[in-house]
Amino acid sequence: MGRSPCCDESGVKKGPWTPEEDEKLIEFVAKNGHGSWRNLPKLAGLNRCGKSCRLRWTNYLRPDIKRGKFSEEEESTIIKLHSLLGNRWSKIASHLPGRTDNEIKNFWNTHLRKKLLQMGIDPNTHKPRTDLNHFLNLSQLFNNGILNPLNSDHLKLQAEIAKLQLLQNLCQLLNPTTTIPTTINNGLQNPNPSQFQAGFSSSFMSVMPGDLEDGDKINKANLEEMGNFDYLLQAENYHPLPPLISESPDGSASNVNQIESIETNPLCFSTNSNSPTASSSIFDSLESLMNDDEANGSYWNNILR
DNA sequence: AACCACTTCAACCGCCGACTT
DNA sequence: TAAGTCGGCGGTTGAAGTGGT
């Protein structure tokens, strides 16, 4: 069954709202409430469709709208809720007083999504991106206090390890029997590589539904229906985001684009190294990484040669 | 100053579910 | 139960803004 579009009348104005239109809408809603959005434009003397009026009111004119930058707390809340709810922006917005679904959606798409990608987290699943686990498990070391995100030496060390782990991945793809000696971890209080395998999600997202098992105290099935995620926002359940991983020695994000390209070309880091195509992609990526580093001291060249 | 590329965000579009007839 | 209406939602678009050259 279809439905007729609400704005099929010709001559209905579209595009940005003028201050006069805003004034009319505010005045009308203040006096009468919005009632039926479909009838509102006619009653308010607006040459707009009801849908447009509703959108303008809920996203912009509503008196309880909170404008301005998102706080860090709001940011964390959005990320947490998104990991539970996905792109259900209105649900997420209901936990952020004064914020609209549209605003949160825009904020997610323009800021948070990129931020998670830079951290190597898949913004859809909130899990480490495939074959980049080694990068991300470093956050475990920060979370359990072995590394301090405020310590620049530790940050440098983190970057070094990330690169060596990438190198190890590459070597293993080219020759599955090759491993980088564990001595690369010298300098860490806990050099055991298995530390890195501990898993990112368990430390960072300790309360994610994916980690809940049947019979857990928290009723996974009912969580969403109840719409009560407040427990997530309680201090004891709150785990701050790990810092961004620097991919170059100077901490710049120059290699973020590499990660992006890896994402769009899964073969580059495919665990199936039998395919010639996969191998050639690996070499391409390697070459590209090395070329990129020409600008910052041939870092990769030094490692790889 | 002019051009271009990129980012941001308000607004639109089409679909869906709830409700009514 | 089917058909129709409506509000709401999420994806997408494009104008405006910004920064770099």
From TrEMBL:
Main location: nucleus
SUPFAM superfamilies, per database record: Homeodomain-like (SSF46689)
Compartments where found: Nucleus
Pfam family of the protein (one): Myb_DNA-binding
Gene3D superfamilies: Homeodomain-like
PROSITE patterns: HTH_MYB, MYB_LIKE
Keywords: DNA-binding, Nucleus, Repeat
HTH myb-type domain: residues covered: 9-61, 62-116
Residue ranges annotated for the Myb-like domain, each copy included: 9-61, 62-112
Domain of life: Eukaryota
Keyword Disulfide bond: no
Official protein name in the record: Uncharacterized protein
Record lineage: Eukaryota, Viridiplantae, Streptophyta, Embryophyta, Tracheophyta
